[in-house]
Design a protein that fits this description.
It is built from 11 helices and 12 strands. It is an alpha/beta fold. Strands 8-7-6-9-10-11-12 form a 7-stranded parallel β-sheet, sandwiched between helices. The longest helix has 19 residues. The two termini are about 20 Å apart.
Length: about 325
């Protein structure tokens, strides 16, 4: 049996699980898949494939061109880039894995502090022989606006409270009593964007939430406020955000997710001022990878034994 592990960008998948127990040929692909033809050429003959989150799409059209594929394992329990209906119709079993809920909130605070205190800029200044060049912002006594108060948003909110921030939240169906139980005050979308000093997004991307943060929301934000997005790029109008940053209408932005990933070398964001950009690192931690790849091996072993586990289709 041929097994292909896609999207191993850091070339570490082999180190986070014992793949030898599968007794099969396992190939690790570290480069991004370019297009349909590249995917077909890479996976021809593979019966089992492991996909890292949503780095590679498995659309109905792509799946139809992979007649050898019998098992598709995605890290995590949800992958919007896999057409589950098409996989089911083609007889392909799709399995998932568990994941941590701490990694992304932790990175969120890394981005908040990096933007607010200009850490990358000051680091570069010191390394280049300089010294202080910026004046940082503050958290204590200032307002944190959490867009989406689910598992991740709630963790971010608790840290904000520990910093002494006034924490408010909004989502389309946010329960005010639940928010209050978390020490958070539910507010309108307009109030959140117009009064928060830090806006952080933790929202599920869907047709309804596409472009949730548009030019209108950015216009509402205070000139000294920052925006952080560790959820999905499609939630924010990237062009409107770039324009707001270039015009100096907001203090800055921390972005871990991008419309195109990997981000093209000539993308406008790379030269946009007052930004801290990370390459979708929210889930990229040792503990998370250990869960992802150990359970991916378990999924393949269980499927081979005729008793698939963590089945999504």
């Amino acid at each position: 049996m041929r097994i292909v592990v896609l999207d191993d960008y850091q070339q570490v998948a082999a180190d986070f699980a014992d793949w030898s127990v599968l007794g099969a040929e396992v190939e690790f692909v570290s480069r991004p898949i370019v297009d349909d033809e590249d995917l077909v050429a890479t996976l021809t003959g593979a019966e089992a494939v492991v996909a890292m989150r949503e780095r590679t799409a498995f659309t109905a059209g792509r799946l139809s061109r992979l007649p050898d594929l019998r098992l598709l394992v995605t890290t995590g329990r949800v992958n919007a880039s896999i057409d589950l209906d098409a996989a089911r119709a083609q007889g392909i079993i799709v399995c998932g894995t568990e994941s941590t809920t701490s990694a992304t909130p932790e990175l969120t605070w890394g981005l908040i502090l990096s933007v607010l205190r200009s850490i990358p800029t000051e680091d570069a200044s010191v390394r280049n022989g300089g010294w202080q060049t910026t004046v940082g912002g503050d958290l204590d006594g200032h307002r944190l606006g959490v867009v989406g108060l689910g598992r991740l948003g709630a963790k971010v909110a608790r840290v904000g409270a520990a910093f002494g921030m006034d924490v408010v939240a909004w989502s389309q169906n946010l329960d005010a009593d639940r928010a209050e139980g978390l020490g958070v005050r539910a507010v309108s979308k307009e109030e959140l964007f117009s009064t928060a000093d830090v806006v952080t997004i933790h929202y599920k991307l869907s047709e309804r939430s596409q472009g949730l943060v548009s030019a209108n929301e950015l216009e509402l934000m205070k000139s000294g406020s920052i925006l952080v997005n560790t959820s999905r790029a499609g939630l924010v109008d990237t062009e409107a955000l770039i324009e707001a940053l270039e015009a100096g209408r907001i203090r800055g932005a921390g972005l871990d997710v991008h419309d195109l990933e990997p981000l093209p070398s000539d993308h406008r964001l790379r030269s946009t001022p007052r930004t801290v950009l990370t390459p979708h690192l929210g889930y990229v931690t040792e503990d998370t990878y250990r869960i992802f790849f150990t359970q991916a091996v378990e999924d393949i072993a269980a499927w081979t034994a005729g008793e698939p586990i963590r089945v999504l289709t």
